[in-house]
Structure formats: structure tokens, C-alpha cells
Amino acid sequence: MEPTIAVIDFGSQYRQLIARRVRENHVHALLFPPNVKPEALRNTAVVGIILSGGPSSTYVPGAPTCDPAIFDLGLPILGICYGMQLGCGLLGAKVTPAECREYGRTALRILRDDPILAHVPRDTTVWMSHGDLVADLPPDFIPLAATPRCPYAVVRHSVRPFFGVQFHPEVTHTPHGGQILRNFVFDICGCSGTWRPDHIVDQSVEEIRRTVPRDARVICGLSGGVDSSVTAALVSRAIGDRLTCIFVDNGLLRANERERVEATFRGHFKVDLRVVDASERFLARLAGVFDPQEKRRRIGHEFIDVFREEARSIPNARFLAQGTLYPDVIESGVSEAGTAASIKLHHNVGGLPAELGFVLIEPLRDLFKDEVRVIGELLGLPEEMIWRHPFPGPGLAVRIIGEVTRARCDVLRRADDIIVQEISDAGWYRKVGQAFGVLLPVAAVGVMGDGRTYAGQHVVAVRIVETTDYMTADWVHIDHAVLERISSRIVNEVPGINRVVYDVSSKPPGTIEWE
Ligand code: XMP
Closest Cα to residue 224, out of 367, 397, 386? Predict the structure, then answer.
């Protein structure tokens, strides 16, 4: 089993980030809930523990705590913020509200050399975000560093391998935070840094082979995105032609999406690919619908209907492969074994409910998106598919404000294709999170040739955002020359559009999509 760092999650907004930071050093990390039992950690080959931050105060009744027996496992433990207060508290220190809360960048001075602070300058900056602090430190603790308002900003226990940092080493605003995490995982926990996301490939292939009996088939809904494509490629490697992929063309796809998926899967993999043209059905079900949530609901139901009909014609299809990722697993609540008790079905219509009667296969459920991309490259998926921007399950329907019709889909698809082409040609595609067009139901007056135009002339909004997690996003200060080319090509090449605007809203308060 892979040596693993356990991140015990006390509700910090940075919990995923801690696991990411550890994995960036090629050390496997998993999140566990506060009530994890020591045996579960032992059974998962845990070699070190990080107690995350969290929004509570350790002295408030009912505040999350962990089983004190994990301190007797003999494993190194690093407490971060709340995790430090909790660990110090369980080992005899007193935690109190700070006189002044500390938020943001603060100067840290190292008082004493220690392996946890190796290679960190004596004076540095750290990112604080706390209202409580460790006030009374018993004699068996050693203070290692302080900030002007926090005398015990870094501490260690003199006998046990317990370390505490009051600040957040996992955020980039703590410039030497990465070094502190590396000191912990390599020098203190003894990790070797040999884990690679592609180790998952052999493991998953083995596991899929063990799970799926020789007479059974697996089906996989392909959406054209990286998660479902990598899932399909992995399952195909495991069981070859016993995989059937279903690609539903709902008429709401980006330009050439269907052709691209067909070419990749027919050309590279030995899978039975069924392409279902259901665009008439979807468009009929969307006729007269203006409300965004109603559009989503109808598309979701139609997708399941189409999928179910298709699946019925595949003999022995008892397994369903899905591209669930680790963030989905974490969001839905992490169980003792470090995996989710119940998978939240993402609003992506590719996420099919297990009630369809299938056994789920989720080979990516321990991975972050960038790790999935590494695996995609390893499996030989084309770069263009691996780096494709995320596309919502309901597709163009939530980018066409108002009623969705085939003609309006065609108009938006052409404009969107120009946006993507120009962004790519200018070298921006990989630098931004999402770039797309939105068709507005606004008729705009224009002049084309010698006449004024109005009827049938609409507006396209260009939305280009940068984001790391899609929870928050900023609009991109893209070269004006690129916007100029996008605008002039759209009004010249897409009949029905005479005006192009650029969306300069952040999320929050805006969302990335318009609907
Ligand atoms: P918002 O618009 O909520 O989008 O800021 C955040 C991310 O989620 C995608 N998105 C969806 N994905 N089904 C999906 O599969 C949906 O209904 C849906 N709505 C938004 C959006 O493209 C962005 O990446």
C-alpha cells in the first residue's frame, strides 16, 4: 500500500489544498473525518498526520475533536491553526481567545532551529487567520517561532513527534509554507516522494479486472470532457471490448464535439462506442422553456431516459463507470476509510444516479483534476481533449438566455467556436479557466452595408475567466487585440449577430455561467 499522509479535516476552507500541496511533492495524501479511528489510519498505511484548520474554537462545547489515541500511534503529527490548538490542548496546553485577532500577512521570527523549520529564513512572512491561540504552554513543549501577536506561532513537543503551526503553510501567501510541509513529510515522516498519480493506473486497472466478471459489461457515459474520457480510457485498458461507451448528442454541444469524441475513441481505443443522436428529443423538451433550472431539470431527465433506453439494449451491462473526482468525494462527506459515504451526484448530467441499477466504478475518485490530466496524457488521449475547458452538462442551453432553439444553438455554436479559436491562436487557452460565448435575447440596432439592421440581430457576450477552483473567478484582462479579432470575426461570420460585448464581472457576485 502507498505510504500516505492523513489530513484530518476539521472544516478548513483549505482542507483540499493541504492534500494537494502534499501530493505536489509526490507523496500520497488522503482526507479523513475528525472521528477517524487509529486502526483505520494504520490500515491505510498512514505515515504522518496533518490536523487541518477549522472555523470552530476548541474550548466551545461540541467543537470537533479527534480520538486522542491517534497521538499514541507514534506517528508524526502536524497541527495547523485549529489543528495546532487542538493538538496542544489534548497534550495539556490552554487555548484562549486572542486579544487581537490576526488575519493576513504577519512577520514570523524563528527562535530556535528545528527540523520542521529547516531552510526557512530566520525572519519571514506567514499567513494568519485565527481568533484563538495557544496561551499557556506546558514545560514539555518547546516554542520555536513567534509573531508580534502570537508568542507560540510554531511549537513542538519535546518527547512526542507533535508539531504545531498557528499560521497556514498551505497557502501561497506563506512563502516558505511549502518548505515547512516538505520538512514534515520528508524529514520528519520519512516519505520518499515517489508517488505519482499514474500509480493509480495500474492499481485501478487491476481493481476493475477483479470487480467485473468475465461475462459482464461496463457502460460509460462519455461527455467529451476530460473526466469521462479518462475514465473510459482506463476501463478500456482493463477490460478491452467489454466496455460500451454511450455518447449522447443532445444538440447542445460545442462545435465538432461529437466528431472529436468519435475520432478519439474509434481511433485510439478498442471500445464499442454508441453515438446517439437525440438532439430532436432534447430540443423538443426545451421548447417554450425560459427558466434556467427548468432547462437543467428537463435536460437531466431526458438524458437519463435516453441513457436507460440505450443501456437496455446492451446485454449484461451491470456496471456503470463514472468520472467522479476527489473534490466531489470530499464535498459529499469523507468517511472513515478516507472515502465518501455517499457520492453527491454532481449536477453534471453525465452523473447518472446509481438507482439505475448499476454497480458504480469510479477509478478517479482519489484524484484531483490536474492528476487526471496526467493520467490522460499517459493513456494517450489527445492533448486537445485533456486540456479542454469544462463544459456544463446542460451545454449551450444555459448559455442561450431565453428559449433554446436549433437555430439559436447554431448561432451560438459558431460564435463560441470563433472565441475558442482566437483564444487558442493567441496562446491564451491554457492560461484561462473557461472562455465561451453567451447568446443574449437582446435585439440591437446596427448598420451593415448601407442600411440599419435591427430585426433578427442579436448580441453575443464573451465570457473569459481565470479560476483555480471554479468557486470564485475573475474576468481575464485579455489583450484587446484578441477581443478585437473575436468581435470582428463574429459580426462578419455569424449571421444574426451585430454586436459583441465583454463580460467584466467576477464571481462572486456573478457566476461563471449566465444562467
Ligand atoms: P457557475 O456558473 O455556478 O459555474 O459559476 C461553476 C462551474 O460549474 C459549471 N456549471 C455546470 N456544470 N452542470 C454542470 O455540469 C450545470 O448545470 C452547471 N452549471 C454551471 C460551469 O461551467 C463552471 O465550470
Answer: 386
The answer to whether residues 454 and 435 touch, using CB atoms and an 8 Å cutoff, is no
Ligand 1: which atom is nearest the Cα of residue 351?
A: 15
Q: H or E stretch including 300?
A: helix 292-312
Q: Is the CB of 300 under 6 A from ligand 1?
A: no
Q: What digits encode the pLDDT tens for the residues 448-460?
A: 777 777 777 899 9
User: What predicted TM-score, i.e. pTM, was given to this entire model?
Assistant: 0.78
How far is ligand 1, taken at its centre, from the CA of residue 317, in Å? 30
100 part of the active site = no
Cα(391) to ligand 1 centroid in Å equals 7
Nearest in space to 329 (alpha carbons), one of 34, 12, 32, 28: 32
Using one digit for the tens of pLDDT, what is the confidence trace for 491-508?
999 999 999 999 999 988
Residue nearest to atom 20 of ligand 1 (CA): 392
How far, CA to CA in Å, does 369 sit from each of 180, 320, 375? Answer: 25, 20, 10
For residue 254, give the DSSP letter: P
Q: Are 373 and 198 in contact (CB under 8 A)?
A: no
Indicate the DSSP class of residue 198.
Answer: T
Q: What is the pLDDT of residues 441-490, one digit of tens each?
A: 998 787 777 777 777 789 999 999 998 778 788 999 999 999 999 999 99
